[in-house]
Design goal:
120 residues, single chain, 7% strand, mainly alpha, DNA polymerase, domain 1
């Protein structure tokens, strides 16, 4: 879950100087993609060195290649088209962007009172 600030408050300084939830989401996602890409790169190196020792080498190697392409495109790992076997082969990497994501809007209580929330 990503909590994103959606209110202005003179007493709370924002690192970028202004509140912009869409920008903040983009920055967070970009940083997480870069982190996962570094993890995938390291895993590719380890897998290539120990080809004969890696269980399900083909699945893992294919999954890592797909993940690299996806992450290099700036997309989260969850958007890569991985089979169940490929997903299982890279589960040990604990990639951050492969997990489902929910965004929570942090708003002022006064703004919340004025909102109408419609649930399906």
């Amino acid at each position: 879950m990503h909590v994103v600030r959606c209110f202005d408050d003179a007493d709370i300084i924002h690192v970028d100087g202004s509140v912009d939830a869409e920008r903040d989401i983009a920055v967070i996602n970009f940083e997480l993609v870069l982190s996962d890409l570094a993890q995938v790169e390291r895993a590719l190196e380890r897998t290539a060195k120990s080809r004969n020792k890696v269980a399900n080498f083909e699945d893992k190697n294919t999954a890592l290649a797909k993940l690299r392409i996806t992450l290099e495109s700036g997309l989260p790992a969850r958007s890569a088209s991985l089979s169940n076997e490929e997903l299982e082969s890279v589960a040990d990497l604990n990639l951050l962007t492969i997990k489902p994501c929910i965004y929570a809007a942090n708003v002022n209580e006064s703004d919340l009172r004025n909102q109408v929330i419609i649930l399906p």
